[in-house]
Specification:
Helix content: 25-40%
CATH architecture: 3-Layer(aba) Sandwich
Family: Belongs to the 5-formyltetrahydrofolate cyclo-ligase family.
Number of domains: 1
Order of helices and strands: HHEHEEEEEEEEHEEE
Shape: globular
Largest sheet: 8 strands, mixed
InterPro entries: FTHF_cligase, FTHF_cligase-like_sf, NagB/RpiA_transferase-like
Number of helices: 4
Enzyme class: ligase
CATH topology: Rossmann fold
Strand order of the largest sheet: 6-3-2-1-7-10-11-12
GO molecular function: 5-formyltetrahydrofolate cyclo-ligase activity; ATP binding; metal ion binding
CATH class: Alpha Beta
EC number: 6.3.3.2
């Protein structure tokens, strides 16, 4: 077994265990965005990219709606495999079309370049590592954004999604902080 195959197997096992923890947290706790809303309010006017929650992800929409009062807010659009995400401007109540994400993306609107990116995740650890769905979209996107200007990568998750350790590849982009329904985790 090659080192890459071993890492892929470890990531797959970690992903499966994390999905179960997240599903249990989603059933047992309401998806509260209070800490996320307060944190974003401390960065008024900065463009924000959120996401449309799917499956049992914690829902950032309340924080995105509040942010839209003072800043441009976007949601991710997948333009193809192996490509970074782009973010189309979103406003509460705007018309959405179905896409790769459960609730889709706006039919029209300007593209934005966020300085804050709220990321969904399957699991995270205290070192700022994130386990996503395995497509690498956010890693490619963060790498591109970080090469062109300042950006804060904010993982948003249930506290139950914390893992002791996340298997990491050299292409994985770290989180600057993680916000849960219980509080804020600053990576060590």
């Amino acid at each position: 077994m090659s080192a890459h195959t071993g890492l892929a197997a470890r990531k797959k096992a970690a992903r499966e265990a994390a999905f179960l923890r997240r599903e249990l947290a989603h059933r047992d706790a309401s998806a509260q965005a209070e800490h996320l809303t307060r944190w974003i309010a401390g960065h008024p006017g900065l463009p924000v990219a959120g996401y449309m929650a799917m499956r049992s992800e914690i829902d950032p929409l309340p924080a995105m709606a509040k942010a839209a009062e003072t800043a441009r807010v976007g949601v991710p659009v997948i333009e193809g495999a192996e490509r970074p995400l782009r973010f189309r401007e979103w406003m509460p109540g705007c018309a959405l079309k179905e896409g790769h994400f459960a609730r889709g993306s706006p039919f029209s609107g300007d593209w934005i370049v966020p300085q804050i990116v709220i990321l969904p995740l399957v699991a995270f650890d205290r070192h700022g590592h994130r386990l996503g769905y395995g497509g690498g979209f956010y890693d490619r996107t963060l790498e591109l954004l970080r090469a062109t200007g300042p950006v804060q990568a904010v993982g948003f998750a249930f506290a139950a999604q914390e893992a002791d350790e996340i298997p990491v590849e050299e292409t994985d982009q770290p989180l600057d902080l993680i916000i849960t329904e219980s509080g804020i985790v600053v990576p060590s």
